[in-house]
Amino acid sequence: MDILTAMKISGSALKAERARLNIAAMNLANANTTRTIEGGPYRAKSVVFGARPLDGEGFGSRLDAASSKLRQVKVIEVVEDDKPFKEIYDPSHPDADANGMVKMPNVDTVEQMVDLMSARRDYDANVAALDSVKAMAMRALDIGR
User: Fold this and answer.
1) Model pLDDT for residues 26-65, shown as the tens digit of each residue
2) Strand 71-80 versus strand 45-53 pairing type
């Protein structure tokens, strides 16, 4: 594996983890949103990652990627959580039904915080990998002098 390939793989992971961070932050920001544009409470979302062949220009890079089975991380889709909404009793709430029950979003704040911490650690690990690749490249240049 060459240096640019290692950078592409870590770069794709950084992009994917950034998407995961954004989705978790959006879930936390809407943890109490009872009215959305679609109607009803906010539904928690999750990111689905997948491995994709390395993108490259030209036949040679595509052949190398196919033969070596190198993969990069891509966000395949963002899916909505199908867990049921939480219901609380609050007859004074503007979105309460006739029985005084309010449907709250299905966002689990503890789960989202764990997802944020995990995504941050994964992001940091990929930054460290990029730093290592950069240091190796600089060292190789120093050897050539």
Assistant:
1) 999 999 999 999 888 999 999 999 887 766 566 666 666 5
2) antiparallel
Where exactly are the structural domains of the chain? 3-144
71 DSSP β-pair partners: 53
Cα–Cα dist 39/98, whole Å: 17
Cα distance between the two ends of the chain: 23
> What is d(CA 106, CA 32) in angstroms, rounded to the nearest whole number?
9
- Identity of the amino acid at 141: L
The reported pTM is: 0.80
In angstroms and rounded to an integer, the radius of gyration of the C-alpha atoms of the chain is: 22
Are 11 and 130 contacting, i.e. CB atoms less than 8 angstroms apart? yes
Rounded distance between C-alpha atoms, residue 96 and residue 60, angstroms: 62
- 103 contacts 34 by C-beta, under 8 angstroms: yes
CA dihedral 111, 128, 22, 78 (to 10 degrees): -80
How far apart CA 106 and CA 94 sit, in angstroms, is 19
Question: Taking each helix axis from N to C terminus, what angle separates 109-144 and 3-29, rounded to the nearest 10 degrees?
Answer: 160
